[in-house]
Amino acid sequence: MTQPDNSENFVPRGAIAFFAFLIALGLIIWFGIYFLMLDRV
Prior knowledge:
0% strand
């Protein structure tokens, strides 16, 4: 039961892209609320 050579340099690009998308979406929402609060002052 030997592992194929491709398993050592396997990169879950879909998961990385998904988490990067979540972080970007959170930052967009955070900055949107932040600038809305700045406009009220």
